[in-house]
Write a structure and sequence with these properties.
By secondary structure, this protein is α+β, with helices and mostly antiparallel strands. The protein is built from five helices and seven strands.
Length: 152
Amino acid sequence: MFVPIALLVAGCGDAVMPGEGAQAAVPRRAAAATPVPAASLEAFWTRFRRAALAGDAATIRALSAPTVVQNSTLDDGPAGRIPASRVPAAVATVLGRPDGVDAAGRTHRAILQATPVPKRDAQQPAGSYRFGDLVFTRGKAGWRLTEIYMDE
């Protein structure tokens, strides 16, 4: 079986097509792997975590949806809406509360301090991440805080 040399070389990363004249001396690179987008969950988490632990209201607002849905902690009440101006205070409230499922009874803040990298739950959809009573969703603008579970 005859395979043109250009096809064999192309699979190795550099290829020069025969008969390209002056451009023949310029090697062509195979397409590089797609880099991890800047809006990855890990990049978002680093910014959100730092802002939440520091109480940086401006950054928390910037990393939140324009209106965050407020769900009851028991999912039995109607959902409300938290305007962007009140989201930092709501996040601070959640951080001060116990997680509710942590065996050590730690607060959300203590768990956040111990979680520099988000731990994905395989049961959650790919574009969603839940950390205690905070839910983050990936949309067109990247990852954002979209829901908070709290009764206050």
